[in-house]
Amino acid sequence: MTHIPMAHPALMVIDLTNDFLASWETKRRARLIAATNDLVVYFRGKTRPVIWVRQDFKDDLSDAFLEMRDRNVKLNIIGTAGAELDPRLETGEDDVTIVKKRYSPFFGTDLDAVVVEKGIGSMVIAGINTHACVRMAAIDAYQRDMRVILASEAIDCYDEEHARVSLRYMDGKIARVLGNAEIKAEIT
Question: Is residue 29 classed as helix, strand or coil in its secondary structure?
Answer without folding.
Answer: helix
